[in-house]
Write a structure and sequence with these properties.
Layout (H helix, E strand, L loop, with lengths): L9 H28 L2 H29 L3 H8 L6 H33 L11 H10 L1 H19 L3 H27 L5 H9 L8 H15 L5 H6 L8 H29 L10 H10 L5 H32 L6 H20 L9 E2 L2 E2 H28 L2 H9 L6 H26 L4
Antiparallel strand pairs: 1-2
Helix pairs in contact: 1-7, 1-9, 1-11, 1-13, 2-3, 2-8, 2-9, 2-11, 2-15, 2-16, 2-17, 3-4, 4-6, 4-13, 4-14, 4-15, 5-12, 6-13, 6-14, 7-11, 7-13, 8-11, 9-15, 9-17, 11-12, 12-13, 13-14, 15-17
Membrane topology: Multi-pass membrane protein
Subcellular location: Membrane
Protein name: Sodium-dependent transporter
Amino acid sequence: MAQGDKFRSKAGFILASAGSAIGLGAIWEFPYMTGHAGGGAFFFMFLIFTFLVGLPILLAEYFIGRGSQKDAVRSYKHYAPGKSWHLVGRWGIVGSIILLSFYSVVGGWILVYLLKALTGGLSNLGSETYGDVFAAMSANPFIAFSAQIVFLLVAVLIVSRGIKNGIEKASKFLMPALLVLFIIIVVHSLTLAGAAEGVSYFLSFDFSGLTAESILMALGQSFFLLSVGFSNQVTYSSYVAKDENLVRSGTTVVIMNIFVALLAGLAIFPAVFSFGIEPEAGPGLLFIALPAAFSQMPLGMVFFTLFLILFLFAALTSAFPLLEIVTAALTKDDQSKRKKMAWLVGLIVFIVGIPSALSFGVMSDVQLWGNTVFDNANYLVSNIMLPLGALFIALFVHFQIPKETLWKEFTNGMSKGRRLFAGWLFIIKYVAPIAIIIAFLNVIGVF
């Protein structure tokens, strides 16, 4: 990492770190995963895991990255030279490529919907037709490829410019604007006929239908939402000044992400129940429910167009850390290689993402365990690779980083905090690993 290429401000780091998940993690995936996994009970388990496991792992990634001031792979080598812990960073690189391979497909969908909105293609449609619009769009291979390529081109262009001139500048404007518009959407959704049923579905904790797999999905979603488990935050935090209070920053990031997830649920589920859409509609839930909701309000398509513009930008902030972890590992402090490596990573992601892009059309019948390539890639990342990555990170901190080093990173910018540090260390050593292992054992039927 070039020493001059750091976040200029605390706000820039927090917004970039939060934006790494808010775009697609909180807005796109969280609502449809909640609908798939049972509503309020899933949301409750997600909250528990986010605070009890997700936040401590997020802080662990921060401490690893800021303490070493290196990219994800070399951070682990810094603390464990000559050992195999660097594979945790490489695990994150592979996972980030897979994750971005289907993320970019969703980013392409946003571009297509934005074009349709700008040209009137979503206006004057009946609320029951938006599902057909999404199905036709996602099944068209030419549209899927073209939109995915454009989305990746934009993301690579910004990342190739570095931290200060690319990622930080974009994040500081985009995230606040998205939050304001999202609040407007929620207010409207809550006025729809049948909105109360949607709110009840989202916030009523009925645990009778909660399964072991749903619990694992809630754990994975907490990691997905915070963008932890793949060492993305290790890379981001390596660009943070030494006097930054990472505990306060991490807590702020968690609260922001949960707040946006709550807004997403309150925006989506009232519309879902108001227009008779199935909560289990899957990856297209947001693209079906929100246009229907906007179509019922004055100047609805104007607001929906603004939302799509900001949602596109937020989706890009989700793509930045996924590109950055791979790009940073390949450049290894030589910033002259950044542009070339960023474009190379973008090309690799596109190639890997081709089957996901075709999963709703010509490859819809190519299935494994009853799911498409897109669904399996999402499940692999969210429910297997991210939790395992988080487990490896917790074990690495426990076994490889001296307690004194962790204490120094934990208390930077704080006058006290020994009890907080002891609690965090206990969670990292025992609670987080045990919770992750139990969740996996539950799914395979051990318990």
